[in-house]
Automatic annotation (TrEMBL):
UniProt keyword annotations, A-Z: Membrane, Transmembrane, Transmembrane helix
Keyword Acetylation in annotation: no
Organism: Hymenobacter ginsengisoli
Protein name, as recorded: ABC transporter permease
Residues of the signal peptide: none
TM helices/strands, residue ranges: 21-41, 114-132, 153-173, 179-199, 220-241, 247-269, 281-309
Length: 321
């Protein structure tokens, strides 16, 4: 049995942090994004939940998302020093986070996948945190310009330069399957997005920025330029398959649009890592799950306008200090 008082205190603290994050996001962006995310999740649940094999993917995807978020948590060292027996607290937290997904699976009679999700989610609490970057011991020459510091440090931390040729090779091997390059694009998007999850120190930002608008333009130009160059093989494979030129162009523009939203999220909520990653995850989830809905274009345009305004406002405040 877990001591009730410390566990309740920890859960109350997490709820307060969540409430603070939601207030920071803003109620109107939260309502629009939450509605689209909910509709997308319901669509995914209806599509995969009715498939005998697809329904088993849902608990694996849910546990994988929890695992990625857990390994990047910044408070794990603090919890380990302040409360050595904190792992069961995390297990309860992750079990509660997985409960809505399990209830959704139960609604489509996915009893086995629901049990699997509730069984895997608490186990994530015992996964080790991501290792600190060991680049200071093993120097290597990055193919990216030093000005694109997100790509230099991010690709080193995520091992993206090792993963990229593997993804391209797998997509080429399975090029007869239209979903192969699409899956490669999705995985590569997650790798690139991870590069923008950690804010740079404010002195770097101050040295690189003249005005907030110029700074954002430069970050978007560098990020989208390298992203387009590395995603081009997947777009080429998609074009060589059954997809037409118009479909390839639409996929490419949508992919770059999502990445630009991820970059804007970084500076809209700078320098709070938790807020940055949470909003980036929300943007990606809404974009990938809700793109089918006719309300998606106006919602994303409104979100983009809000992120541009918020990022310039936050940068202006940082540069003024």
């Amino acid at each position: 049995m877990l001591p009730a008082a410390p566990l309740a205190a920890y859960l109350r603290l997490r709820l307060r942090l969540l409430a603070r994050l939601l207030c920071e996001i803003g109620w109107w962006r939260l309502v629009l994004g939450g509605a689209m995310l909910g509709l997308g999740l319901l669509q995914a649940l209806a599509s995969l939940g009715g498939h005998p094999v697809g329904r088993w993917l849902l608990p694996l995807l849910g546990a994988g998302a929890l695992l990625g978020a857990h390994r990047q948590r910044a408070d794990l060292p603090f919890l380990a020093s302040a409360a050595p027996g904190f792992r069961p607290w995390l297990a309860v937290e992750y079990g509660l986070a997985a409960l809505p997904g399990a209830l959704g699976l139960l609604a489509v009679r996915g009893y086995g996948p629901a049990a699997l999700l509730l069984g895997l989610a608490p186990l994530v609490a015992w996964a080790p945190p991501a290792r600190a970057d060991a680049a200071t011991r093993h120097r290597w020459r990055s193919p990216f310009r030093s000005e694109a510091f997100e790509w230099v440090g991010g690709m080193r931390a995520t091992k993206g330069l090792w993963l990229w040729p593997i993804l391209v090779a797998l997509a080429t091997w399975q090029r007869a399957q239209p979903l192969a390059p699409v899956a490669g694009l999705l995985l590569w998007l997650l790798v690139v997005a991870a590069c923008y999850g950690i804010p740079e120190p404010s002195p770097m930002l101050t040295l690189a920025a003249r005005t907030p608008r110029q700074f954002l333009r430069r970050r978007l130009a560098l990020g989208l330029g390298y992203a387009a160059a590395t995603a081009a093989p997947f777009w080429l494979l998609l074009g060589l398959g059954s997809a037409g030129g118009g479909a390839v162009l639409a996929v490419a523009l949508f992919w770059l649009w999502l990445l630009s939203m991820v970059i804007l999220c970084k500076y809209a909520f700078y320098p709070v890592v938790g807020h940055i990653r949470s909003t980036q995850g929300l943007v990606l989830a809404v974009g990938l799950l809700g793109a089918w809905h006719p309300a998606y274009p106006p919602v994303m345009l409104a979100a983009a306008g809000g992120l541009v305004w918020q990022s310039q406002r936050r940068l202006r405040a940082v540069l003024a200090t």
